[in-house]
Amino acid sequence: MARITAGIATSHVPAIGAAIDLGKTEEDYWKPVFAGYEWVKEWVKDNTPDVVILAYNDHASSLMLDIVPTFAIGCAEEFRPADEGWGPRPVPTVIGHPELAAHLAEQLVIDEFDMTILNEMDVDHGLTVPLSLVFGQPEEWPCKVIPLAVNVTQFPTPSGNRCFQLGEAIRDAVKSFPQDLNVQVWGTGGMSHQLQGPRAGLINPEFDNNFLDKLINDPDDLRTITRLEYLRESGSEGIELIMWLLMRGALGYGVEELHRFYHVPASNTAVGHVVYETKEAASARAKAAAKA
Ligand code: DHB
Ligand code: FE
């Protein structure tokens, strides 16, 4: 039986990808950003999943404004890095898991989430930068990835509560997949940032830190944050945080926070990053330790 063992959330700033690709991670500006990811890079060596269900948003790279699915699931065999204007990032092709993706699509539609099915798609920084932050620069990504694209770029975006509910449905759907798979769910984007208009450059550490506190301890409270509140408090792009709620919904209750990081700024963005373990994974680990 497939099981969700952990959740990771991280910002996905494109300049972070460029800093990695251009060998700038040791520069004074970038060093404190990458220091925040040393922990997860070690942890994931012993906790490499078989599959990551990766909630992210496309930034009009593959899903141009002619087609804007609210929720879309990548069912292809593979997904190439998208050309976002400077050529595709020099990172490995992302290998999908079509069987689990098809199962998720079926179960989620049965659960009344009207998913768009994507059988071909390139993936932009929203998906590849988190992979680089967690796995570094391998020849091949060490696990399969199911892209789950959420519309946060074009009004009307889904609510945070709906994303949380989708996460809960993903949890049920993963449990009913017969193959023995270790699955992680990742949420990307955020935290506070605004790239345009008179408030460009907005950062709100108070909002972000409250979000980090509540995400682990009181996620139900975060489910009530409206689109307007995200816009006002976390800037026009801060709404990317609803994908963190999708991750949180997929983990269930009794979750443990293993790691937390917050740093301002990277480019125009407040960088946040958490690693959570599910109750089931923690008790399986305790049992294995007791046996050894
Ligand atoms: C930046 C952040 C983002 O999340 C994004 O999608 C694009 C740019 C930035 O801070 O530059
Ligand atoms: Fe973004």
From TrEMBL:
Keyword annotations: Oxidoreductase
Cross-referenced Gene3D superfamilies: LigB-like
Entry's Gene Ontology molecular function annotations: ferrous iron binding; protocatechuate 4,5-dioxygenase activity
EC annotation from Swiss-Prot or TrEMBL: 1.13.11.8
NCBIfam families assigned to the protein according to its UniProt record, in alphabetical order: PRK13364.1, PRK13365.1, PRK13366.1
Protein name from the UniProt record: Protocatechuate 4,5-dioxygenase beta chain
